[in-house]
């Protein structure tokens, strides 16, 4: 191969190399370019192989043409590689920099259950009136759930149809109401005493739109000197207004409970129609929300309190029903299914 041919070839190689070098913009591209020209199977290896077969005079002349190209090309490669690596490093650093001033991603917060919301609101209302808060036990004896509350031994509420008994002797049971807290608290504290209590109660009921074998009640009672039914009424009016708003009205109807005398049932103006009459309140404008009365003298005697000196009132209400009214929940099961799509709305 004549020397001028190789010289031409090297000019061409240099032109091709310059073009490729200009186009290579990443470390990878530059490293590939180096391999293609100067690697063990590269273009320059072929050139040197051909060079060997030339006569020594020509070899010298050509070696003189090849070396400057090789040196310059490798220097250019290195220079560009340094520049591109520096750029890449800078870009990566910019991308990876942690901005500690950015607001953090907020953890997903849970939601309070509507019954918890109602319970807390009610506890706050009574705490503000100076009541102690005491949820009381869910497992009870016949004495605290029935006997001390003046239920006669044959009272229908004791029926195994209604009560979950825990032993065959029917002495231990799941409380059927929160009224057990009256007895527990009056035994523990000397009057004057006022306690508010909210918690779970149990009855052998079918699950329907309105009933469940486990539900929630709230109970309040107060014992002091000279307490009369006016105190009861004022307390309940205050409670209902704070929970449902100032335009909520209430009325009392005579009723019967073994542990109160006299006893009353309390209706409040329908939360949906404000008393005008609608489907929910059966067109009456009223809905029943709690039971109450003056604590029966026998109940006071049962816990060693002298009814000649002390008197008191008590009331009890369903938390589930109040939650359903307050948050417009039509079916009690909705409260116990714990469907997150429902709960996350509260
Ligand atoms: N314990 C009653 C029930 O489960 C509710 C109740 C009525 C509680 C009158 C009271 C009361 O304290 O005075 O239905």
If you had to describe this structure to a student in words, what would you say it looks like?
By secondary structure, the chain is an alpha+beta fold. The protein has 2 domains: 3-96; 114-343, 2-Layer Sandwich (BirA Bifunctional Protein, domain 2). The chain is built from 12 helices and 9 strands. The chain is rod-shaped and about 135 Å long. The chain binds 3,4-dihydroxyphenylalanine (DAH). Residues 177, 179, 219, 257, 260, 291-293, 314-316 line the site of 3,4-dihydroxyphenylalanine.
CATH superfamily of the largest domain: Bira Bifunctional Protein, Domain 2
State the CATH architecture of the largest domain: 2-Layer Sandwich
What small molecules are bound in this structure? 3,4-dihydroxyphenylalanine
Measured by DSSP, the beta-strand proportion falls in 15-25%
What is the number of domains?
2
Name of the CATH class of the largest domain: Alpha Beta
Distance between the termini: 90 Å
Task: Describe the structure concisely.
44% of the residues lie in helices and 19% in strands. The protein is an alpha+beta fold.
């Amino acid at each position: 191969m004549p020397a001028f041919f190789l010289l031409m070839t090297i000019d061409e190689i240099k032109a091709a190399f310059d073009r490729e070098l200009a186009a290579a913009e990443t470390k990878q591209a530059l490293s590939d370019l180096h391999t293609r020209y100067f690697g063990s199977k590269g273009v320059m290896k072929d050139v040197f192989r051909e060079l060997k077969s030339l006569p020594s005079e020509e070899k010298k002349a050509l070696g003189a043409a090849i070396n400057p190209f090789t040196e310059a090309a490798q220097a250019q490669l290195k220079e560009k590689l340094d520049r591109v690596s520096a750029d890449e490093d800078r870009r990566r650093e910019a991308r990876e920099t942690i901005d500690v001033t950015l607001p953090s991603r907020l953890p997903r917060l849970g939601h309070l259950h509507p019954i918890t919301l109602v319970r807390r609101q009610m506890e706050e209302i009574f705490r503000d009136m100076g009541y102690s808060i005491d949820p009381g036990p869910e497992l009870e004896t016949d004495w605290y759930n029935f006997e001390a509350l003046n239920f006669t031994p044959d009272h229908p509420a004791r029926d195994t149809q209604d009560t979950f008994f825990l032993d065959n002797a029917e002495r231990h049971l799941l409380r059927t109401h929160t009224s057990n807290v009256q007895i527990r608290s009056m035994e523990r504290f000397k009057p004057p005493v006022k306690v508010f209590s909210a918690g779970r109660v149990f009855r052998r009921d079918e699950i329907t739109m309105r009933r469940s074998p486990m539900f929630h009640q709230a109970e309040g009672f107060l014992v002091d000197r000279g307490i009369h039914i006016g105190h009861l009424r004022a307390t309940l009016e205050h409670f209902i207004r704070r929970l449902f708003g100032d335009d909520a009205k209430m009325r009392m109807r005579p009723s019967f409970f073994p542990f109160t005398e006299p006893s009353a049932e309390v209706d409040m103006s329908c939360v949906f129609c404000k008393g005008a009459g609608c489907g929910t309140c059966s067109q009456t404008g009223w809905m029943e929300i709690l039971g109450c009365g003056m604590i029966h003298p026998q109940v006071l005697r049962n816990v060693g309190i002298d009814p000649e000196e002390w008197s008191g009132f008590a009331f009890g209400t369903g938390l589930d029903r109040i939650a359903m009214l307050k948050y417009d929940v039509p079916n009690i099961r909705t409260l116990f299914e714990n469907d997150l799509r429902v709960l996350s709305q509260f």
